[in-house]
Design a protein that fits this description.
Blueprint: H1 6-21, E1 31-35, E2 46-50, H2 56-65, H3 71-95, E3 99-108, E4 113-122
Antiparallel strand pairs: 1-2, 1-3, 3-4
Helix pairs in contact: 1-3
Length: 127
C-alpha cells in the first residue's frame, strides 16, 4: 500500500535515515513488525524482522532496531499501527463484516517502507 498518511511518511523517513546513517543496506522484501517473535518466551516486545530471500540480514537489522536509545522509532511505529487500526476498524464496522484481527507490519520495497496489513477473521463463541 503506497505511503499516504503523514505518520507513515515520517516513519518511512525515520527508518530510511536510521539505516542510511548506519551505512546499512536493507534488502527488499524485509518485513518489520513489533511484538513477540514466534518461539520467544521472554515476553519482551521488540521489533521482529523477517526476510525469506536474505534471512541472514534479519539478525543485524533486528539488533540495530532493538538497540538502546531508539525508543522514538518504537513510539512512531506504534503510533502508525494504532492510527491504522482505528481507520480499519471504522471501515470494517461500516461494512458490517464481523470481527477481524489486524496484523500490522511494514515491508521494504527497496526504496520505501510500505504498509503490510493483514486481516484475519475472528469468530466469537459463547460458552
Amino acid at each position: 500500500m503506497p505511503i499516504e498518511s503523514s505518520t507513515h511518511q515520517q516513519l518511512n523517513l525515520l527508518l530510511n535515515s536510521l539505516f542510511s546513517d548506519q551505512n546499512f543496506a536493507v534488502p527488499a522484501s524485509t518485513r518489520l513488525s513489533f511484538g513477540m517473535a514466534d518461539g520467544d518466551d521472554s515476553g519482551e516486545l521488540r521489533f521482529v524482522v523477517e526476510n525469506d530471500v536474505t534471512p541472514q540480514s534479519e539478525t543485524a537489522i533486528s539488533q540495530l532496531l532493538n538497540s538502546d536509545g531508539l525508543e522514538y522509532v518504537i513510539d512512531s511505529f506504534i503510533a502508525l499501527e494504532q492510527q491504522l487500526a482505528r481507520d480499519q476498524a471504522e471501515v470494517i464496522q461500516e461494512a458490517g463484516n464481523g470481527f477481524f484481527k489486524q496484523e500490522f507490519a511494514l515491508m521494504y520495497d527497496g526504496q520505501d517502507w510500505q504498509l503490510d496489513i493483514r486481516l484475519y477473521p475472528v469468530s466469537l463463541r459463547c460458552a
